[in-house]
Amino acid sequence: MATVTQSPPPAPAPAQAPRAKPPRKRGRRTPYLLLLPGLLWLFVFFALPVIYQASTSVQTGSLEDGYEVTWHFATYWDALSAYWPQFVRSVLYAASATVLCLVLGYPLAYLIAFRAGRWRNLIMILVIAPFFASFLIRTLAWKTILADSGPVVEILNALHVLDVTSWLGWTAGDRVLATPLAVVCGLTYNFLPFMVLPLYTSLERIDPRLHEAANDLYARPSTTFRRVTLPLSMPGVVSGTLLTFIPATGDYINADLLGSTDTRMIGNVIQTQFLRILDYPTAAALSFILMAAILFAVTVYIRKSGTEDLV
Amino acid sequence: MEQYEPDRLSPAQVAAVRRSFRNGRAALSRRSLLRTSAGGALAFGGVGALSACGIPPAGSTRGGVSAEDHSEKEKSVAFSNWTEYMDVDDSGREHPTLDAFTERTGIKVTYTEDINDNTEFFGKIKPQLAAGQDTGRDIVVLTDWLAARLIRLGWVQKLDPSHLPHAYANLSSQFRSPDWDPGRAYSYPWQGIAAVIAYNKKALDGVEVKTLSDLLDNPKLKGRVGLLTEMRDTMGLALLDMDKAPEKFTADDYDAGIARLQKAVDQGQVRRFTGNDYTSDLSKGDFAACVAWAGDIVQLKADNPDIDFLIPDSGYMTSSDNLMIPNKARHKTNAERLIDYYFEPRPAAELAAYINFVCPVDGVKDELAKIDEDAANNPLILPDQAMQAKSRSFRSLSAEEETAFEAKFAKLTGA
User: Fold this and answer.
1) Is residue B84 within 8 Å of residue B105, measured between CB atoms?
2) Chain-wide mean pLDDT for chain A?
3) What residues form DSSP beta bridges with B115?
4) Count H helices, E strands: chain B?
């Protein structure tokens, strides 16, 4: 009966262990694999162009003779000293537009989040609707709205509003178009949805019971807003201002169509350098200075406002 | 319930919570990832990558590089043109003159309206042409300064005159020999573009304008004058206004012209520099007067009787958009046949009747009169002798001049 005592081969137990392992390994790699498309996208459409532009900015040469990297960093200084007024102007215009967007957008977002009731979806659609038309067309529409002989300018003139803005240097004479005011209004209009949407999401997330609680604790509505609503909506305020300020600084369409020679922004300069003058190094250097300035400003802003979870 | 009150957490607990946040982030947060990959990219690519990507010289093979001509085998030709620069039928989809060409020759035309702006289009085709590759286009239409640049760079092919009998015979004399392409070896004009002064009678409100100086100096027009961002048209008219010849001005003349316009800009006389969008400013009356392209004015006038144009005594600027065959185009012979076709009186007249620019073809008057009597008598479409005599053109610029002049002009426009 020796055969009976023979034990079966002990294969299954050890074989199971290695088979069980791979899934766990794969599991550890999964996040990276999932990230791969994103990383590739980032590399091809962000990292590569940035490296290419960085290289262009330190090249010298001409279209005919080609450009070579000569580490000519003076381009940065030359570009900055020639075009600092446009830089300052861009930041000023973008900041004004951002503040205006916040002032207009906050009540609107508040209304949609807390008071709109069954109109909420309709108002949301109205906020997003302008995106269905092209950016250019929307901006051109403002040329009709603000035309010199149009009703808006006539009313403003009759009320002597333009005398005041003219005195402040925001408009010129009895017109609105081709003045700084028109450019800032255009920026405000075009970027308002970028302010309203993040504000709305952060306001909408606030638990209404917190308002009830504040009310129960005898807080006046203004105190409730100041102590409860506003602090809780800060992430929305911060992301809204960033989403407005950053693209507005680099925008050139509004300045081009609604502005004049003394309202040109840095985006216009970069466009002219790239396309008309074909001075690629200066254009690239200007882009980098703009990028660095925005990055710096945004970092300071986020540190100050204490919403680091955003980045 | 005590444990839910944040104030009751011990300092150690608070520290633990904070730590867990930090560690959680440090594991694989967007931030750490960006930090690591940015560092990696810099270390990797960094210096090496930066110096590796210079821009090679734009080719200088004068005379152009022809590819093998596939015209015999492939009965087709790819034609890139500006928007609204071709006749269309009532349905808005067919181009009668192109259809007639296909019917006669059997050559299928792939017509694309993908040119919106010279500078932009140059940016688009530059990489292929600089690398000596086919752009996929057999004919492109470019304004003469850009055409001159492409010839200078050696990026277009020399045309074969034996394929262009009509073009040779019928080309109107004012377009025959531009200084940037003597004898039309590389290009033939598609349409001529006259830069004149346009005005809105209602907005002028009785103010009389006759010259560019009136626009630049009359305080009644302050803030209601428009100039074009197209440097050669605006500066050409300014030079003419100062009695300088745009065909042979010096750098000093140019600077004087810039100074003249700068003064008007500083005084707030000029509202803005525009591209094609000046038409809306003019018809709304925001511009009382402006430098304008005649082809637009013919159409604006039809819609708005207040709008009209004038030719200053000193003359006006004529430029042209030119048909060219880029290097490595696959169907050169077909392209030449198409170019030649548009210099036959009949198709040229049909085209002129539809798009209202200056027709560069001689002998179309009778054909045009059959289609549209008014157009045939319009000096903006078929310039008569008096008009032709006042037509001036901007001289070609060397690469260095072009850069310097464009930079000065850009400064004038604010950037």
Assistant:
1) no
2) 88
3) B82
4) 19, 10
CATH of domain A88-310: 1.10.3720.10
Instruction: Give the tens place of pLDDT for each residue, B44-54.
Output: 444 555 665 66
Region of A178 (left: φ > 0; alpha: ψ -120 to 50; beta: rest) is left
Q: Would residue B359 count as lying in a domain?
A: yes
Q: ipTM score of the complex?
A: 0.82
| Shared domain check, B224 and B251 | yes
- Which residue of chain B is at minimal alpha-carbon distance from A64? B58
Would you state the structure tokens that stand for residue B164, as one six-digit string? Answer: 């262009």
CA–CA dist B298, B302 (Å, integer): 7
Q: How far is A174 from chain B (nearest CA, A)?
A: 10
Mark which residues 63-102 of A lie under 8 Å from B by CB. Answer: 63-69, 83, 86
3-state SS assignment for residue B271: strand
Of B53, B58, B285, the CB nearest to A55: B53
Domain span at B254: 193-318+399-412
Residue B199 lies inside a defined structural domain of this protein = yes
In this complex, is the C-beta atom of B53 within 8 Å of any C-beta atom belonging to chain A? yes
Q: What is the pLDDT of residues A242-299, one digit of tens each?
A: 999 999 999 999 999 999 999 999 999 999 999 888 899 999 999 999 999 999 999 9
Q: Does B47 touch chain A (CB under 8 A)?
A: no
pTM: 0.82
Amino acid at B8: R
Pairwise CA distance, residues B407 & B359, whole Å: 32
Residues B221 and B175 in one domain: no
